[in-house]
Design goal:
Structural class: alpha+beta
Number of domains: 1
Strand content: 35-45%
Number of helices: 4
Helix content: 25-40%
Distance between the termini: 59 Å
Radius of gyration: 20 Å
């Protein structure tokens, strides 16, 4: 049940306590909205990962970005706007035969209809050239904007922290 539905009920929610003092209904609604926004942003990132793992689906990926949104990933490229993001993901389809995006440790800061998020990623990839298997670690730094009640990417930045062959790993051996 959304909080707005609770407001309509007169069941004593107006006298909820916080640390021994009465919590203002508006404050409670703001706190709940921040929680809902945070969860919606987590779901946006989960959808992004699912689309990437669905053969980097170029048509679905654009649904997650605002019209002038930016995807930026170092050597993997930079694209702004739905058409160029779609093209970039078509390129990914040609380069990558398998990926498993696993994101963790979100830090999400919400400021009204804008938000920033930092995430860490670790995943196995198989690149089509030579059927090369790699481990890839990334730090995502995202800017989000709330449009018509839903969150979208304004700017997704993927910073490659590590890319290493599956067989030998990333650590040097003596």
């Amino acid at each position: 049940m959304r909080f707005s539905a609770l407001k309509r009920k007169s069941c004593g929610y107006h006298s909820l306590a916080k640390g021994g003092s009465n919590m203002d209904l508006a404050e409670l609604e703001q706190r709940l909205m921040r929680i809902e926004d945070r969860e919606a942003i987590k779901e946006l990132k989960a959808r992004y990962c699912a689309i990437c793992d669905d053969d980097h689906n170029p048509d679905k990926i654009t649904t997650l970005f605002v019209e002038d949104g930016i995807w930026e990933g170092g050597d993997f490229g930079r694209a702004q706007g739905h058409a160029t993001i779609r093209q970039l993901f078509q390129t990914f389809q040609k380069l990558i035969s398998f990926s498993q995006h696993m994101v963790m440790n979100p830090i999400i800061e919400i400021d009204g209809n804008r938000a920033k998020g930092t995430w860490y990623f670790l995943g196995p990839f198989t690149f089509r050239k030579d059927n090369e298997a790699k481990w890839v670690a990334v730090r995502y730094e995202d800017d989000y904007v709330k449009v018509n009640g839903g969150w979208k990417y304004q700017h997704l930045r993927a910073y490659i922290r590590m890319s290493a062959p599956y067989e030998t790993g990333w650590a040097k051996k003596d």
